[in-house]
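User: Can you predict the 3D structure for this chain?
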Amino acid sequence: MATRKDALPPILEAIPGATVRSMFGEYALYVQGKVVGFVCDDTIFLKNLAEARALLPNAELGPAYPGSKAYIVADPWLDDPAVLAAAARAIADALPAPKPKAAKVPK
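Assistant: Here is the predicted structure, written as structure tokens:
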């Protein structure tokens, strides 16, 4: 089941500065230009990093899509957006800067 577009506004409202990009009917969740997780089947999945687990204790883990590694299921923290946003920012801060894209060579 693909994520409904109306599932995105509450997530983007809870995580100030976050953006999403469509990806195979689902969405990648970006903070500070870095992928911090996914929105799949109307569920928020954050990268399973120690920085996020410290802020989201006892968080359930699950695959974002069939065959994926375990991600933090972050939906319960939509009711506490400050904590959800802090966890997303902590993940972004822990990740390396995105690599610059190579310039396209004209044909």
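The radius of gyration is 14 Å. The longest helix spans residues 81-94.
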